[in-house]
Amino acid sequence: MRSAIPIEKTPATSRARKTVVPAQPSVPPRRRQAPLGEIVLPLVGVALLVGVWAVVSQLAPFLPNPVQTVTKSWDLIRHPFFDRGPNNKGLGWQVLYSLGRVGLGFGLAIVVGIPAGLILGRSSVTRKMWDPVVQVLRPVSPLAWLPLGLATFQAATPAAVFTIFITALWPILLNTSAGVQQVPPAYLQVGRILQLSRRKMMTRILIPAALPHILSGLRVSLGVAWLVIVASEMLTGGVGIGFFVWDEWNNLSLEHIILAIAVIGLVGLGLDRLMLAAARRITNQPLG
Questions:
Q1: Which of 232, 68, 216 lies closest to 145, judged by CA?
Q2: Which residues of 183-196 are buried (b: 16+ CB within 10 A; e: fewer)?
């Protein structure tokens, strides 16, 4: 018998056999349709809304149509930061004053709500003690707190900040508590094995694990804060987008009121998108 002649494997043949040509990545269909879903469809929705508005304005003569609204509000649109005295400022200043009050009340709600939520979520005894109180105070209308704020602080701005704080507090507190309660027990066991202190247990285990819930609570709370400030300013007066709406009602200027409604909605949308983007960046998760 003839013996088989061994074939020597050269480095070139080894590399040739091991070389794998990677497949070309295909573009996901969703990315191709992104301009349609993110730009065109919202514009279509806005166009339909304006069309319905135009039809309704024909049926209700008291309601100005889109052209009348833009025409009579054009100076406010072109010059949002004019200042002609304490009670005559542009829409830009009105929005900035309102955002300042929202920032103060929302910030206080964060400072109080997150630590309180951590305590309630961590201690079942504390949770059973305070949960009835929270559930009783949570559904109270925001405007019911405003007279208490006015009586306490004797000024419009602190009263509005107090109202924002007390109403924006509950979403943060409840979501933080729920997030802590849903932390897997294995995480806490690891902390006990490592003999972490209470502070490190909070900062290294509980808060990171409950972070998606906390951020969801912050998002809801910010929306509530922006909603409350408009109603508060309508009653307290001064400078702010809510006061602007009430002042224009006294002037019987529905065109300016409609413009203010659009501005309120756009600012609220911007705040929500900013909070959502921050939450996604922090958690690297597609929240909301």
A1: 232
A2: beeeebeebeeeeb
Report all structural domains of the chain as residue ranges with CATH numbers, in order of start.
Answer: 93-283 (1.10.3720.10)
Q: What angle do CA 21, 25, 31 make, to 5 degrees?
A: 175
**C-alpha span between 232 and 162 (Å, rounded):** 10
Beta-bridge partners for 83: 89
Distance of alpha carbon 127 from alpha carbon 124, whole angstroms:
5
Distance set, CA 155 to CA 57, 149, 151, 200 (Å): 40, 8, 8, 41
Nearest C-alpha neighbor of 98 from the set 243, 205, 201: 243
pTM for this entry: 0.80
Q: Return averaged pLDDT per consecutive 10 residues of the chain, 288 residues in all.
A: 47 45 48 64 90 91 91 92 83 94 96 94 90 92 90 91 95 94 85 82 86 93 93 86 91 92 94 90 68
CA distances from 128 to 115, 120, 124, 125 (A): 17, 9, 6, 5
- The DSSP output letter for 72 is H
